[in-house]
Specification:
By secondary structure, the protein is an all-alpha fold. It is built from eleven helices and no strands. Helix 2 crosses helix 6 and helix 10 packs across helix 11. The chain is globular, with a radius of gyration of 20 Å. The chain binds heme C (2 copies).
Length: 245
């Protein structure tokens, strides 16, 4: 009985997913929040951890001049990989696998350590990317609203839900940012004595946010370096399972 029920449910879900899978740029804009730690988009976008994604559709892979890509992505671009809704959606599932298949080279590697598992999210974000070009009207960066709150108000407004803390995308993005900046002073790579060894188990997420956002004594403030969302992702990494400074 259970078996036939779940088979029925599976067929039903398959059928409805097929019918309702029209790409949705609006939903894709929300998905793009997972990308903003590393990518900017819009007329004034700059390269960050990842290259700018303005006008990415129609662009050859690995072709932004002043961005330092991995070898494999450059090779794929030279072999003819051009970003389209289809190639983007496939790449985002697992960038390394995608490059290995495309280049027919099991040693190929992506330097984008991020995967978007849900197919619906991939299709939607690919649809969103087609809508953002370098002209002012189309472009609108998420989270660029001018901050009107005081430092203390921003800190007080932070809520860290279980869902947010356990989202692997936040962990991955926070990890990238941690190794980009924080290890100058913290962790095994840092010069000994520059900063205390962190004891994440002792901290509440709100405390970690406050220290990063506002700084404390010789710990610099990062509120004009990182967006609030990025700092929240660093908090997820510092508090996460597998934090390895
Ligand atoms: C943790 C950081 C990080 C996150 C999060 C991330 N990316 Fe990337 N992305 C990169 C890096 C680094 C590269 C360069 C990859 C390479 O050189 O192999 C890249 C490359 C790309 C490229 C190829 C661009 C080009 O010029 O060829 C696309 C497209 C892309 N990312 C889309 C996305 C989208 C869409 C998301 C969110 C769903 C996302 N990325 C999330 C870091 C990230
Ligand atoms: C320029 C060196 C430097 C960098 C870079 C730096 N920190 Fe710190 N950090 C410190 C110092 C010094 C302290 C100790 C401040 C004090 O309590 O006197 C500290 C304290 C902290 C604390 C509080 C520790 C405690 O037990 O009270 C946290 C959390 C923290 N840093 C996280 C980070 C994160 C995350 C980053 C990257 C965004 C970062 N730090 C980058 C120097 C640095």
């Amino acid at each position: 009985m259970m078996k036939s029920m779940s088979l029925f449910a599976a067929i039903f879900m398959f059928a409805t997913a097929g019918a309702g899978s029209a790409q949705d740029a609006e939903a894709g804009k929300a998905v793009f929040k997972k990308c903003v730690a590393c990518h900017q988009i819009g007329p004034d976008a700059k390269n960050k951890v990842g290259p700018v994604l303005t006008d990415v559709v129609g662009r050859a892979a690995g072709s932004i001049q002043d961005f330092k890509y991995g070898k494999s992505l450059i090779a794929a671009g030279e072999k003819g990989l051009v970003w389209s809704e289809e190639t983007l959606a496939a790449y985002l599932e697992n960038p390394t696998n995608y490059l290995q298949t495309y280049l027919d080279d099991p040693k190929a590697r992506s330097s984008m350590s991020f995967k978007l598992k849900k197919e619906e999210d991939r299709l939607n974000v690919a649809a969103y990317l087609t809508t953002v070009g370098s002209d002012e009207t189309a472009a609108e960066e998420p989270d660029t609203a001018v901050e009107t709150r005081t430092v203390e108000e921003v800190i007080a407004d932070q809520v860290f839900t279980e869902e947010f803390m356990s989202d692997p995308a936040n962990f991955a993005a926070g990890k990238e940012l941690w190794f980009a900046q924080c290890t100058h002073c913290h962790g095994f790579k840092a010069y000994p004595g520059k900063a205390p060894k962190l004891k994440p188990a002792k901290y509440k997420p709100e405390f970690v946010f406050k220290r990063i956002y506002k700084g404390f004594k010789k710990m610099p403030a990062w509120n004009d370096v990182y967006t609030i969302d990025e700092i929240r992702q660093i908090v997820v990494y510092v508090k996460g399972q597998g934090f390895a400074p």
